[in-house]
Write a structure and sequence with these properties.
This protein is of the alpha+beta class. The protein is built from seven helices and four strands. Helix 1 crosses helix 3.
Amino acid sequence: MHNRVLRDMTVGDLSSVVEIHQRAFGGFFLEQMGPSFIRAYYNIVLAYNGSIAHVSLAKGGDIEGFVVGFANPNEFYRTLKRSSLQLVFPILLGVLKNPYLLSKIFQNVIRVFKFDRLKSDFIVNEETAELSSIAASSSSKGIGSSLI
């Protein structure tokens, strides 16, 4: 297996991470919301004490992939609720760009605000981690496997 350089993601990495995210998740909700929303979301994740965020670097030092998640999802979603003002402007931009996103936005707001009360077949507690996203700039190079 190729030796990869993995390191913690920083706020300075977000431009590259957003670009990779948009290419990897074209047509999915976060990508449809636009780069300012993706950046704001990842900023909130990075600020969260239990964030799990790493990047994979190519030989030249360019970011070739990333993984983002968080420990203790219940606490993360409480943090996300408290940080919701950071998402208002990016949400407005997303809706202006694509008004059809409004129903998806409401569904996701309800999901976030009800997260800790949802019935589930699995246990979610302080020992649980959630993988939010993982993406690579190219496939078949083992970048995703390294990040996992």
